[in-house]
Write a structure and sequence with these properties.
Helix content is about 40%, strand content about 20%. It has about 400 residues and is of the alpha/beta class. The chain folds into 2 domains: about 1-205 and about 380-395, Glycogen Phosphorylase B (Rossmann fold), CATH 3.40.50.2000; about 220-380, 3-Layer(aba) Sandwich (Rossmann fold), CATH 3.40.50.2000. The strands form 3 sheets. Strands 4-5-2-1-7-8-9-10 form an 8-stranded mixed sheet, with helices on both faces. A 6-stranded parallel sheet has the order 13-12-11-14-15-16, sandwiched between helices. A hairpin with a 2-residue loop joins strand 4 and strand 5. Helix 2 packs across helix 13 (about 380-395) and helix 4 packs parallel to helix 5. The protein is globular, with a radius of gyration of 21 Å.
Length: about 400
């Protein structure tokens, strides 16, 4: 056990999560799951943990909420009561960022006791600036970087690009003052110029839980869970599914969508395609276990795939259901024996590979999937991965 740590991130308080699911607006469930796993793992390493959170939400007027209010609550992790402060924020574009910085900084300053270790999740400017402004009062600072700034959005408008350039300069200034980095891909190191800094790659982690008892669907069921976007190849997956000429197949899709009009057009073309909405984590896990094949259609030729590891890879494998995806550059080699890969990333290539795997010997698929699940449970669990982070910072 070591000294005190303060974690600044974007986990969702339960009431905020309920509002987002009710509104069917955008939420970053993958980030929430990773952070919760990390906190669970680090709770075995530190005597005391404080959490400051300001989660990702859709801003007003796309969200019904114009403001979220400060709230304190506790997380029960490993029989420890971990205090969490949800700072709240004004939920308008741009004003949200300013209010986040002011409130997170105020809360951090209040909680600092001396000799604290501060962990910051993501290259989120309000978080980084708050820590940077108080760095003289912090013993060690570690930044967890799931994505690089230039690959977080595909909006290439002139004004957007100008603002992103300014933001990147601010973030880089902050990063130079920090000591430790947790990266989701080895390719990030050169992009961030981390020479002389200490860093490791932790592509993800799994917080083990009791999985529900499920019966597999009688139909060959393909499932995609996550953000529904053209950028992530989801509409290519749907088009590939159209070309499967069998009533014995069905495609389930769940998650937030950046273009509901387009999604509705696709769904109406084929009754075998079902959109199940935004669901709680336990509901998604149940669907994953009921499915025949889990698919991530994100193309490997996109530049941003070098710098991010899809968290659904770990979730998919942990479900014990066969997993199919493109050979993304950021996937460590140790995953290869547990995954099925697309041989051809065209729409027809997607169709052919899906049909091939769904026609394989069920015993072979079951053995491969069980081995993959054990790989995640024993080697990528939150305690093993968090311990690696702890050793980076404390040892």
């Amino acid at each position: 056990m070591s000294n005190r740590m303060i974690f600044i991130g974007s986990i969702y308080p339960s009431n905020v999560l309920e509002d987002i699911i009710k509104e069917q607006t955008h939420a970053d469930f993958a980030a929430h799951t990773f952070q919760m796993g990390m906190l669970e793992g680090l709770s075995q390493c530190y005597n005391k943990i404080q959490v400051i959170t300001s989660p990702v939400t859709t801003t007003y007027p796309n969200s019904q909420k114009s403001q979220y209010h400060r709230k304190k609550y506790e997380l029960n992790l490993n029989k420890k009561e971990i205090p969490v402060t949800f700072t709240g924020f004004i939920n308008f574009p741009f004003l949200k960022l300013i209010s986040e910085y002011i409130r997170v900084r105020r809360e951090l300053k209040k909680q600092l006791k001396g000799n604290d270790v501060v962990y910051v999740y993501a290259l989120h400017t309000p978080f980084l600036l708050a820590v940077y402004s108080l760095k003289k009062h912090i013993s060690k600072i570690c930044v967890i970087i799931p994505d690089l700034l230039e690959h977080m959005s595909h909006n290439n408008g002139v004004i957007r690009q100008f603002l992103k350039a300014i933001n990147k300069r601010i973030v880089n200034r902050c990063l130079k003052a920090f000591q430790y980095y947790v990266l989701f891909s080895r390719f990030m190191a050169s992009e961030l110029s981390l020479e002389g800094k200490k860093w490791i790659v932790v592509e993800g982690m799994y917080a083990a839980s009791v999985l529900p008892q499920c019966v597999k669907e009688t139909k060959k069921t393909i499932l995609y869970s996550g953000i529904i976007s053209k950028r992530y190849g989801v509409f290519d997956l749907i088009e590939a599914f159209y070309n499967i000429d069998s009533k014995d197949y069905q495609l389930w899709i769940c998650g937030s969508c950046d273009d509901f009009n387009k999604l509705n057009e696709y769904i109406q073309k084929d009754k075998r395609v079902k959109y199940l909405g935004m669901l709680q984590k336990n509901e998604v896990r149940t669907l994953q276990m009921r499915a025949t094949l889990l698919v991530n259609p994100r193309h490997s030729y996109e530049e941003f795939t070098k710098f991010s590891f899809p968290s659904k890879t770990i979730e998919y494998l942990a479900s014990g259901t066969p997993t199919l995806m493109c050979p993304l550059p950021a996937i460590p080699e140790e995953y290869n024996e547990h995954l099925f890969y697309f041989n051809d990333e065209s729409i027809d290539g997607y169709r052919i590979r899906i049909e091939e795997i769904c026609s394989m010997d069920p015993t072979y698929l079951r053995i491969k999937s069980e081995k993959a699940r054990n790989f995640i449970l024993y080697e990528k669990n939150c305690f093993a991965q968090a311990k690696r982070i702890y050793y980076l910072v404390e040892k």
